[in-house]
Each structure stands twice: as structure tokens, then as C-alpha cells.
What we know:
Elements lengths: L1 H5 L2 H6 L16 H17 L33
Amino acid sequence: MLALILDGELERSYSIRVEAPRDLADDPSGDRLDALFCAIQTAWSWTMRSERYGAPEHLDPLEGWIADPSLQEPTGPASA
Length: 80
């Protein structure tokens, strides 16, 4: 997963680039990698701040949600 992130796969869906040491995944607890995933979602959400931070429109504002581009509602002619 880290290789996909660092090799540009992430940039296609999140429109952000991540730089991190490749040995980040060497942490047996996975805490460092988990922190990177959280930072990625936070960074993406911040880029969407003018659009409800990427939250789907139908989301209950009192509930939590996971910030992720896959939750975006389709727009344009294909969604009509």
C-alpha cells in the first residue's frame, strides 16, 4: 500500500502527492502507516473545504464519517 501511495497512485484519486520514507511500513505495530493514512484523508478533506470538506450532501451533520473521495456523489451528465 505504501508503494502505491509513494509511486503516484494516490495522486489520481486524491489529487495530492505524498512524500514519506519507504521504511515507514517497517513499523511492526503499523502505527506510523496508520498515521500516514489519517494524514492523507485529512489533507484531502482540507482541499475540499469549500465543498463541505468532501462530506456527502445527505450526511447527517451530527454523525462522523470517513473523509474519502470514493464517498463523493457523482456530478455531471452521467449522474442525471
